[in-house]
Design a protein that fits this description.
Layout lengths: L1 H11 E2 L2 E2 L49 H6 L4 E7 L6 E3 L1 H4 L10 H11 L8 E2 L15 E2 H7 L2 H11 L1 H11 L13 H4 L6 H12 L7 H11 L8 E12 L2 E12 L2 E11 L6 H15 L7
Antiparallel strand pairs: 1-2, 3-4, 3-9, 5-6, 7-8, 8-9
Length: about 300
């Protein structure tokens, strides 16, 4: 399959120009004006005169692998998918959505875990917080949790406590340092990723997890390795899959579901971000985020197809 993928890419890129078909032009992140909503499973130099103008980063390019868009759209949702394979071009499905920012919801647990470790709010993956006794919608949340277990079951209360202990000023400093999305942590330190001002695009999600994988984020190597450890999927022991889900709930009448992370293979890492949106999500909406991602990874030869 890898040879098929390389052949497809070579056909689509001629003299440095990629034939994008329905994919459109390159994608760079922007931020929408959509009003935020609570998480369903739970919330802006002066240059010296002689200096040359700043160099713009080269645009992201996109290639089409036949059938990928059909697979993604078969669910009946509006969706977006970014895949950065070990070699070749980024694969961008529905590029307008790839470059649009959305609430990260629980995908923010990835940077929030790094911040918790770097600030000393938690001492490591097994740092325990006692449950406060408040009954919440997800039964698995209603117990004591460590950073590791809270990440695995996406326990919002644990990460809200982390954020409050980090505090508004330090949190803003770290979100700026990590260059995460639009960096807007208004209005509340324990809700900005759930129903506040923070927005991140699928492309930015991929950029972030790639920097984490390569240990190039401006945090200690120890913290980056700890977070990668807790990202390991316990549901797929045969795969080296490291990822996080996220779900916004209804935002101006639409629900947004994320699956973001990377897959380690013998050929190298595949970085991905899947976004599904629907005005009427079905009962399988949460499961379909991961399911469709694995199908797409299978179609490009990253994993065996079922």
């Amino acid at each position: 399959m890898r040879s098929t993928l390389r052949a497809t890419l070579s056909v689509l890129c001629v003299s440095g120009t990629c034939v994008l078909g329905i994919f459109g032009a390159s994608c760079a992140a922007t931020t929408p004006s959509a009003a935020p909503a609570p998480e369903a499973v739970t919330s802006a130099s002066e240059r010296p005169p002689a200096a040359p103008p700043p160099q713009e980063e080269p645009p992201k390019t996109a290639v089409d692998i036949p059938g990928l868009t059909r697979t993604l759209d078969s669910l009946g949702y509006e969706s977006a998918f970014v895949l950065r394979p070990p070699h070749g071009e980024d694969i961008l499905l529905h590029p307008e959505r790839c470059r649009t920012g959305y609430l990260p919801a629980s995908t923010f647990k990835i940077p929030n875990s790094l911040i918790a470790l770097e600030t000393g709010v938690v001492s490591g993956p097994d740092h325990l917080f006692k449950w406060d006794g408040v009954k919440r919608p997800i039964a698995a949340w209603n117990q004591d949790h460590t950073l590791r277990s809270a990440f695995q079951v996406s326990a919002v209360w644990y990460y809200q406590r982390v954020a409050r202990e980090v505090g508004q000023e330090r949190m803003q400093s770290w979100v700026d340092k990590l260059a995460y999305g639009n960096r807007d942590i208004s209005p509340a330190v324990d809700r900005f990723w759930l129903d506040g001002g923070l927005r991140i695009s699928p492309i930015e999600e991929v950029d972030f997890v790639q920097r984490l994988y390569e240990e190039k984020l401006p945090v200690s190597v120890k913290s980056q390795r700890s977070v990668k450890e807790i990202m390991r999927s316990v549901d797929d022991p045969s795969l080296q899959l490291f990822a996080k889900t996220g779900r916004t709930g209804l935002v101006e009448g639409r629900d947004y579901g994320w699956y973001v992370g990377y897959l380690v293979t013998d050929a190298g890492p595949y970085f991905f971000a899947t976004l599904l949106t629907s005005s009427a999500p079905g009962k399988d909406f949460s499961e379909e985020r991961k399911r469709i991602t694995l199908r797409l990874l299978g179609q490009v030869g990253a994993i065996p197809q079922p």
